[in-house]
Predict the 3D structure of the following.
Amino acid sequence: MSEHNAPAPKSADDPAFVLPASLAALRLPLCVVGFILMLAGWLVASKIGEFGDNFGMAVYLTAAVYCITIVLGCLFFVLIQHLVRAGWSIVVRRIAELVMVMIIPMAILFVPVIASLWSGEGTLYRWDRGLEYGVEHGLPKEVWSEKLRWLNQEWFTVRTVGYFAVWIGLALFFFKNSVLQDKTGDKAITDKMQYWSGPAVMLFSLTTTFAAFDWVMSLAPMWFSTMFGVYLFAGSILGAHCLLAVSSYVLQKKGAMRDEVTVEHYHDLGKLIFGFVFFWTYISFSQYLLIWYGNIPEETEWFYVRQIGSWGTVALVLIFFHWMLPFAGTMSRHVRRKPGLVCAWGAYLLVMHYVDVYFMIMPSVEGESPGGVMGVVASIMCVVGMAALLSGLCLILAQQNKVVAVHDPRLRESIAFENF
């Protein structure tokens, strides 16, 4: 179907562009239950093991990083669609825009992580103990002192505030302009967003990379990998595409944008999911291969811990169930053209993305294994609660706006989109 033969977009006031009442009714329950569940999971985790507070904060950080990566993945999705002037994605872009604004509540939810640096030495990050950590581990004083020039409470806090300031600024700029276009229909707004998308992508890349170094890689303060930022980003953008597929399917089942999002859009989302499953695998293996080949003690520590005991099992789970199974499952064109299957694979990979984030963070918790059954239960409670809280807040925002960018100049092109 060509753009010229495509049906004219519906009126901006059409009910298809409004959040369905059945989903709107879930706003407050999700917020309240999510907050309680998140808090309960955090508190339960804090009572586990010899290093309870440390384990509890690690569980909370895992949930926070998981949610932030998906939010940032949606932000990147919006930026890159404007940068390449994509037409196909217009009908699903508003979902990503709504999710990316959740970086504001995530900035608030990240406060406990910052507070842990100021409330007690070594509560979460081992480098927070200053020179004491270096002495305990027999590190040369001059080497450890250089590390502490970057890893210290004050500078860490300033950088974190800077990261969130950039992300919030970008999210609000693109969201407010997109919503403004819903009201005015001004095509110049699209040109403005395209113009600023290039610098925005560069800012996004720098801040996301350094946030990955600070928040996750520094949990093992003597370990380093220049690929780690890309590794976290790979999971982030994969999670965003999965969330878009799941959200679009749920909205359609509840009656929204049934004619706007077609099999062709699910096909493209399925292709992106398939592609980024492979991209995640490529980055993960490349990072491992280079460090294994170099065989430098400071570089191998991170992988060594994750190849022994229970963590070795988790590593195998990621290989078989984050790569092989979804890679084979989403390879077929027939699968990618079935909305229900694309949604199912998206939901499955959102779970596996959490396992990946858990694998990044939890082995670095000093003196702890995966935490046993209660540790896993507490972790699930915390992340499900935080995700539910954000979902409730996102529904509140969605109820106040359209679920499709109704006056985007390429909306008709998006509706008429076909794969070849």
